[in-house]
Amino acid sequence: MKKQILLLAALAAVSSGVTAQKKDFGYKFYGQVRTDLFYNSRSNSETVDGLFYMYPNDVAPDANGEDLNAKPDGNFYTLYTRLGLDVTGPMLGKAKTSAKVEVDFRGSGTTYSLFRIRHVYFNLDWGTSALLVGQTWHPLYGDVAPEILNLNMGAPYQPFSRAPQIRYRFTQKHWVLTAAAIWQSQYLSVGPSSNQTGNTSTQKHQQFIKNSCVPEFYVGADYKSQGLLVGAGVHVSSIAPRKQSEYNDAVYKVSERITGVSGEAHVKYTYNKLMVAAKTVLSSNLTQTSTIGGYGITSVDTRTGEQEYTPLRVSHTWLSVMYGKKWRGGIFAGYLKNLGAKDEVSGILGTGTKIDQLGTATAELTYNLPNWKFGAEYSWTGAAYGTNTAKGRVTDTHLVKNNRIVFTALFQF
Fold this sequence. Notes:
Blueprint (H helix, E strand, L loop, with lengths): L1 H14 L10 E15 L3 E4 L4 E5 L16 E5 L4 E11 L2 E10 L11 E10 L3 E9 L24 E11 L2 E8 L7 E3 L9 E3 L2 H4 L5 E10 L2 E12 L4 E4 L2 E4 L4 E14 L2 E11 L8 E8 L6 E5 L1 E12 L2 E14 L6 E5 L3 E15 L2 E17 L5 E19 L1
């Protein structure tokens, strides 16, 4: 609590100019107070007790055949209240220097009163090129995201993650080229929860990227001109699921790795009050970006229990259309398809791996004033659950649906 009070005092001091006396430094203090009231018609896969919404849970019959997940829920939160600080600094050689620190109150688990780092980085800008070092949006989230009230910002159709990274950008006329090396912090890959061979129970843990000793890599290109942004990128991730195996009553050192290559394309067009944006992603084991996927076990060494893996492939596509200024309305549509693995698998690790298809349709209306936003949003989501085939695809499906309503009030300063 003392640390939080000190941080608040420091930010307040900066905003009032008390600490803004250093030569060649500039400070801009900003933030928001946000409240969210939501209702769901059934139980869902989610984080932050429902604020970060993903998709409806599958049917779970009790002893009488009643669905345990067929129950509504709802809550009211102020957890996405936010504080931030933009800093401009003195020249470093020929580079303009800047930095950002931004936090919110989401905390972790059920401890919501703690500060959580959103963005923290410094940037060196030479005009046509720039180097960013620190934590910010994952490059797969990028500059094209849907405009919706739900705090998942389109996940699991839109990759969602903020991650530590070293990012280089080169700008020439209408073109922007991006290359980044990315690590994991708050948004983590899924992997095995124990060393037992064939155990397909999973957990999210930083050790999978840490043990890999290899960051994620992204390269992409964007073209920008008169309200139009078009681009594409390629992402590679390589994690180490296990360093040791308990097999045949013995422990063995193993060297395991699962590598996935993903691609994405995006477009955004703005003209006066109109905004149209879309993105499509073909992912391979992108569970660290708040989406569905994972990988399967293709073989097991009969002496040591060392396993080989292949990624599950998932297709994600979304479209967002918004129109208006003071009164602003719009729609969002998302579709996801599990394409399975290229080889047969004996076990699957991941999230949402029993979903064949997932679809969402959303409509919203907001009332916007200087520094204020009030909005309501309705979304329908349907998930087709079934059983996995030998290659990780899903068959014999049944549809599970959820209706979600969100009311939001936002004061920005």
